[in-house]
Design goal:
Elements lengths: L5 H10 L4 E6 L6 H9 L7 H4 L2 H5 L1 H4 L5 E8 L9 H4 L4 H7 L7 H9 L5 E2 L8 H19 L7 E2 L7 H8 L3 E2 L5 E2 L7 E8 L19 H5 L5 E2 L2 E2 L5 H6 L14 E3 L3 H4 L2 H4 L17
Parallel strand pairs: 3-10
Antiparallel strand pairs: 1-2, 2-7, 4-7, 5-6, 8-9
This protein binds cobalamin and iron/sulfur cluster (2 copies).
One iron/sulfur cluster binds next to helix 12 and helix 13.
Length: 294
């Protein structure tokens, strides 16, 4: 099969709003052992959908057997210049905002407890735009269609969050950054305020050569900042994470750290990350915070 032109393919993604992208081979990154260790170390039960067939999750070819290469993209949803707007962008009616912006799972008892304590539930930065799954999927479907027009015979599948693909290790293998101690994909220029999404490609495209990244060094800011004590040793404990409790689970609590006021998602392990202080990614219009939603 002919090799495709990696630069031409990436140009399509960058024109569509990705702030960074890279091509990697569809060979699985060496992540299975770490993934298993992270699941085994969980204090509470691991959800079936996450634990099911770890080999499949760690190997994208099991999800798309025709994949030869993978295009991985980072889409910023926040940057340092938006920081001063955080308070102003908080909706007056968080519950109404969550309904209107398409968030299907929330934790009403938690929201009620925060209200009863006189705390207006905070919406985290990634949830201030419209639901990103649909927005990024549309963009990537379009990139795939354009790429198929340029590279005859090209087929592929779009992934963004909901597919059984380990997006952070894949992005790291592609050379887009590294997984920080908060477990998130961190890029020196964009920080961690970006979503990961991409395409499998049925044609082979030469892989990018991953650059060297500084890594976290001796920094421990995220571990120190977590109000729930969910981060240690590069792992996240789901049973403690507030983001888990307010976006995936819909009941229970009170939870350790809930007085921090997060009603949907939680940004504490990213706010003090030194790489986010100077994050300079351009937020594409389809991921901009919703300033008017009623
Ligand atoms: C499940 C899930 C969640 C769960 C669990 C998060 C988690 N860290 O696992 C919950 C609901 C808590 C969650 C929260 C958030 N999420 Co989420 N989530 C996912 C999802 C669907 C799967 C992640 C996964 O595979 N988890 C399983 C764990 C085991 O994998 P892992 O984190 O890579 O684990 C690694 C470490 O534990 C490490 N490890 C294990 N053992 C050891 C030992 C040592 C010594 C070391 C050093 C490392 C190490 O290796 C493991 C394998 O890489 C991905 C989308 C996807 N399909 O990939 C989005 C995703 C990770 N989420 C995303 C976002 C934006 C968030 C939030 C920021 C939202 C918010 N503001 O609340 C928070 C961040 C919380 C956090 N600190 O991670 C983005 C992250 C983008 C980025 N820049 O990284 C993703 C990629 C979605 C997307 N398409 O953009 N999420
Ligand atoms: S999202 Fe919040 S609760 Fe979860 S690990 Fe990060 S700081 Fe801790
Ligand atoms: S806060 Fe520090 S340790 Fe945590 S992800 Fe950022 S650089 Fe790494």
């Amino acid at each position: 099969m002919d090799a495709g032109d990696t630069a031409a393919l990436k140009k399509l993604a960058l024109e569509a709003g990705a702030a960074a992208c890279a091509v990697t081979s569809a060979a699985p990154p060496a992540v299975l052992a770490r993934f298993r260790a992270a699941l085994a170390a969980q204090e509470g039960p691991v959800p079936a959908w996450l634990a099911r067939e770890p080999e499949r999750r760690a190997d994208i070819k099991r999800w798309d057997p025709s994949a030869r290469s993978v295009l991985v993209c980072l889409f910023p949803y926040w940057n340092a210049s938006l920081e001063k707007e955080f308070e102003r962008l908080q909706p007056a009616d968080p519950e109404g905002f969550l309904r209107a912006s398409g968030r299907k799972k929330t934790n009403p008892p938690l929201l009620a407890r925060l209200r009863a304590a006189g705390v207006k539930p905070k919406i985290s930065r990634y949830a201030l735009p419209r639901d990103y799954h649909a927005a990024i999927r549309e963009v990537l479907e379009d990139v795939l269609a354009r790429a198929a027009g340029v590279f005859p015979g090209l087929e592929g599948k779009v992934f963004c969050d909901t597919s059984p693909v380990m997006e952070k290790p894949l992005a790291a293998a592609a050379g887009l950054g590294w997984q920080g101690r908060n477990t998130l994909l961190l890029n020196s220029r964009l920080g961690s305020w970006s979503f990961v999404g991409g395409l499998t490609l049925s044609l082979e495209f030469p892989a990018d050569i991953p650059p060297e990244y500084p890594g976290c060094g001796s920094c421990r800011e995220c571990e120190k900042a977590c109000p729930a004590g969910a981060l240690a040793g590069g792992r996240l404990d789901l049973s403690r994470c507030l983001s888990w409790h307010n976006t995936m689970e819909t009941a229970g609590g009170p939870f350790p750290g809930e007085a921090s006021g997060w009603g949907y998602g939680c940004d504490e392990c990213q706010k003090k990350c030194p790489f986010n202080e100077g994050a300079s990614g351009t937020v594409p219009s389809f991921l901009g915070p919703l300033r008017s939603w009623e």
